[in-house]
Amino acid sequence: MSFHSKLPRVGTTIFTVMSQxxxxxQAINLSQGFPGFGADPHLLExxxxxxxxxxxxxxxxxxxxxxxxxxxxxxxxxxxxxxDPDEEVSIVSGATEAIFCAITAVAQPxxxxxxxxxxxxxxxxxxxxxxxxPIHVSLKPGDFSIDWEQVRHAVNFRTKAIVINTPxxxxxxxWTEEDLKHLSALVRDRDIYVIxxxxxxxxxxxxxxxxxxxGQEELRGKSFVCGSFGKTFHVTGWKIGFCIAPKELMRExxxxxxxxxxxxxxxxxxxxxxxxxxxxxxESVSDFYxxxxxxxxxxxxxxxxxxxxxQGSFFQMAYFGHLSNISDRELAKRMTQELKVACxxxxxxxxxxxxxxxxxxxxxxxxxxxxxxxxxLQNLSKIL
Length: 384
Hints:
CATH topology of the largest domain: Aspartate Aminotransferase, domain 2
Oligomer: single chain
Helix content: 25-40%
Pfam families: Aminotran_1_2
Protein name: Aminotransferase class I/II-fold pyridoxal phosphate-dependent enzyme
Cofactor: pyridoxal 5'-phosphate
CATH architecture of the largest domain: 3-Layer(aba) Sandwich
Order of helices and strands: HEHHEHEHEHEHEHEHEHHHHEHEEEH
Domain Aminotransferase class I/classII large: 28-377
Radius of gyration: 21 Å
Number of strands: 12
Family: Belongs to the class-I pyridoxal-phosphate-dependent aminotransferase family.
Strand order of the largest sheet: 2-8-7-6-5-3-4
Strand content: 5-15%
Number of helices: 15
């Protein structure tokens, strides 16, 4: 028998590879994007409460009404728009599922979907599995802002969607009002949808505000806003996220979702519905992570790496091209094996694995772990 793969170029993700390497060489894992600390004990108590109280059977396909209601209110509080919790809000098993379902709902064979690179590695496989073609547009070197002239050149009659991500992984770039104006002009009077990955919505620094597409009157009519409770509340292993979209789009989204996971873990939904009633639980996240970013960047000053402090997310990129011409993958390997610090080579975020000489660190760790990693990174020159 011969087997024809739908994803012939896809192997094990770099995140799994680097985390396994970190484990094998007993290195500090600043590669994969998961927090190195626990969640609020109160949230954990709520999960235990609802588990023990018997909320353990299937949740409704779209999510429990209580969580959809409080998420709609939170959206209005944060972005000035109250979505219909019955027809415009769905709870899903992680933002990756939300992105997959949104792309699958709109993209068909013959369509094109624009991806802005470097990009999270789940976008392209979702486009390919839908039978559509990914069209890659590189972000500007240095600050990784959007080259809107290139984006406009990529648009044609086959363009069905564009996937955006703010705050951005891996660069930490946060979209501006000007970016939103360009995006609005791009999709205006065209049948182009927007899949907006906003999993780091509550992690923006230096007084910046996250500009959700849910708060943009012109854009939200064509947009799927995908978010993550796991990223916000330090519980990535729960794999629980959401999607907000106009009812016509949400109807198609749910058709896909019901045959991917159908529903999402029930007691956690009830716990989050109660936990979200206190806005301080998510409004304090930016300050929490900004202190970690500042601590990490202060330490990077002594490593020889170049960097611009991340504008958002819990990732910090660093440039090493002035130090060596080795590949970012080779550097990541040497750092893990010899310095005992694991990172992600940014070439993994490009479809053609181009190497801009950047590596990405996750600073969502305890301060003592970050300090230990920074001490080790001061020996970087010894492995170049």
